[in-house]
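Quick check before the chapter quiz. The format below is the same one you will see on the exam, so make sure you can read both the input and the output lines.
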Amino acid sequence: MEEIRTAKSCKQARLAIQDTLDVVGGKWKLVLISVLRHGPRKFNELSREIHISPRILSKELQELESHGLVSRTVCNTKPVTVEYALTEYSETLSEVVMSMHQWGVKHRQRVMELV
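Here is the expected output.
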């Protein structure tokens, strides 16, 4: 059965996409989620691994934490270190992240063939 598009359903689809982009949009959020899928990381590890300034990293992590996608744990070390990990809720993005990864691999191959 073919879905009938209405102005209301189109607007709802746009709003849903905008809501998603408000949470994970931008240059770094999906990169951070992708890296953290491989396990928790300390702040400095993340900064070095993805080549992001501490100021921007802090802002991005705070936003991901505020949306319930990343947890922050202060470690009892000297000096104090902070570890970040994905939350259970972040698993709801797994399909999106994997699809984007697969598309990115195909796109990179296409671009390399054109060079």
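If your answer matched, good. Helices lie at 7-24, 29-36, 43-50, 54-66, 94-114.
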